[in-house]
Design brief:
Strand content: under 5%
Largest sheet: none
Structural class: mainly alpha
Order of helices and strands: HHHHHHH
Distance between the termini: 25 Å
Radius of gyration: 18 Å
Length: about 210
């Protein structure tokens, strides 16, 4: 919901850093890996109930998640051949998607391991993440098959980006909130989970209109 609105603000500093990194040999895939590693560290901190350390690492991980795309867009082709690809490769897009979904669910799992009294609501929230993730990716697959494009509202993507109530910005906010207010996890998970289910239903209805 907020991704498109935040994109113009986020792109300015990310593009500036990407230009600085251009030509240094630092690849988008390396940055994706660093972001995922920071996410693993954040999960470990949540298991140990080091909530504010987890918060800092989550923010660092998501910064890297934005930076990898900016670096990919600034990477120059290595060849003049018409089929030469930039470092914004299909494989890089694949890594990015997989690491994102593992990160989101892994943070919630780690919270539940550290605080098993919240395990039921954690399971509910991960279930809701599966709904938003599967409806998102399934739509992208069919859209790619039909040759659909979606413009650049969320930035240049490796796939069709279907929007919804709960997108990346909202999910990051929720992960930060559970680090700051861990005692309110059940309420946060219930509210956000309900919004995720609404997003899933909206995407299913959108697919029915577009593909039916």
């Amino acid at each position: 919901m907020f991704d498109a609105r935040l994109r113009p603000l986020i792109d300015v500093p990310l593009n500036a850093i990407a230009r600085t990194l251009s030509g240094t040999g630092i690849t988008p895939n390396f940055i994706t890996g660093v972001g995922f590693f920071l996410g693993l560290l954040a999960a470990g901190c949540l298991v140990l109930k080091l909530d504010y350390a987890a918060l800092v690492l989550i923010l660092g991980s998501r910064f890297m998640d934005g930076l990898d795309g900016a670096v990919a867009r600034h990477a120059a082709p290595r060849s003049r051949h018409p089929n030469a690809k930039t470092q914004e490769s299909d494989l890089g897009g694949y890594y990015d998607i997989v690491s994102d979904f593992l990160f989101y669910s892994g943070i919630i799992l780690a919270f539940a391991i550290g605080r098993p009294e919240h395990a039921l609501m954690a399971a509910f929230l991960i279930f809701c993440f599966v709904g938003t993730g599967s409806s998102f990716l399934a739509y992208a697959i069919i859209a790619a098959k039909q040759g659909r494009t979606d413009g650049d509202a969320q930035g240049k993507k490796s796939f069709f980006y279907l929007t919804g109530i709960t997108e990346g910005s909202e999910t990051i906010l929720v992960l930060c909130l559970i680090c700051i207010f861990p005692a309110s996890f059940n309420m946060i998970a219930a509210i956000f989970g309900a919004l995720c289910l609404m997003t899933t239903m909206g995407r299913v209805l959108q697919a029915r209109r577009d593909f039916g």
